Amino acid sequence: MTRSGLTNHGPAEPGLAGPGSTPLSLADLASAARDVLPGEIWDFLAGGSGAEAAVAANRAAFERIHVIPRVLRDLTGGGTEVEVLGRSAALPVAVAPVAYQRLFHPEGELAAARAARDAGVPYVICTLSSVVLEEVAAVGGRPWFQLYWLRDERRCLDLVRRAEDAGCEAIVFTVDVPWMGRRLRDMRNGFALPEWVTAANFDAGTAAHRRTRGASAVADHTAREFAPATWDSVAAVRARTNLPVVLKGVLAVEDARRAVQAGADGIVVSNHGGRQLDSAVPGVDVLGEIAAAVAGGCEVLLDGGVRSGGDVLKAVALGASAVLVGRPVMWGLAAAGQDGVRQALDLLAAEFRDALGLAGCRSVAAVRDLRTTAPRHR
């Protein structure tokens, strides 16, 4: 399978093969994914909004941060386990919600969820999943459900009920998408979903499949289905479920404090991977300030730009209880299905374990006492 086209039933079954094919970094998986995916699907995954300044800024922000390691510490008996939203995870990592994963591999969300289960980390099912949420949740492990606010409030809150009934452990309410940002790669490609990929959680009609030159059919679909969320929307979700509610897409200290007041159990500091406001600050640049502002009133997670276990270490040192990782997991999915996702998560685990010890930390809890060149507000 090359980047030039699609099979009749989705991307061809890919795999990493040949001498030297074992990935040693997430960048290796990115190269393998780019080789196997059609160009417009790679663009859908890799691209951001506008000039993609926020996408680049997310990486630049991580690269500016340096950890000040400690030495001569006892490192015996350590581990990478952490508690996130009241449950144990093997790493301070969760798989971020990513729409339409059957674009990247025929098994889509099912393959990714199985790999996350086996790796011992939470998997966030997207509202725009290409496999119905009940099937993905049935894989087991630690499923969470990501919610977009829909024009049909009844249908939106019904998704919350379905997620709870299916065994999801949290509702991750994305609050930074009043509408989809202008993603120029998709517009230039006239991107539309292929016929075998649908928004499986609700009947979305044909809007996302209708190709129009100079426009994104996915953006057209979301414009028809999504509505801007408000604090009243948060109250409605909070009242609808007993599950932990996490607000994803918070960047302002004022919003973080209000989230605590609104009863949120957690927030995800995120600029949506650079796919919404192109001038938005990188989440990691404001993470320390936000963690200090909420002062334990809710959990603080980070999303956007994480590309290594060292990045995970930096985020935890700045106050995150865990990070969400999206694109790198999808690189693994495209490159080798379930095995590729597990390779991505195994790489993060190995790199984080290495960074943990080299920073002089026996446990994740010890990382929170590290200093960095981006000081955490205390």
Automatic annotation (TrEMBL):
Binding site residues for FMN: P97, V98, A99, Q146, T174, K248, S270, D303, G304, G305, V306, R307, G326, R327
Region (Disordered): 1-21
Gene Ontology terms, MF aspect: FMN binding; oxidoreductase activity, acting on CH-OH group of donors
One Pfam family from the record: FMN_dh
Annotated binding of glyoxylate, by residue: Y148, R183, H272, R275
Active site positions, chain numbering: H272 (proton acceptor)
FMN hydroxy acid dehydrogenase domain location: 18-377
Swiss-Prot/TrEMBL keywords: Flavoprotein, FMN, Oxidoreductase
Superkingdom, taxonomy of origin: Bacteria
InterPro entries the record matches: Aldolase_TIM, Alpha-hydoxy_acid_DH_FMN, FMN-dep_DH, FMN_HAD, FMN_hydac_DH_AS
Cofactor needs: FMN
Similarity field: Belongs to the FMN-dependent alpha-hydroxy acid dehydrogenase family.
Protein's name in the database: 4-hydroxymandelate oxidase
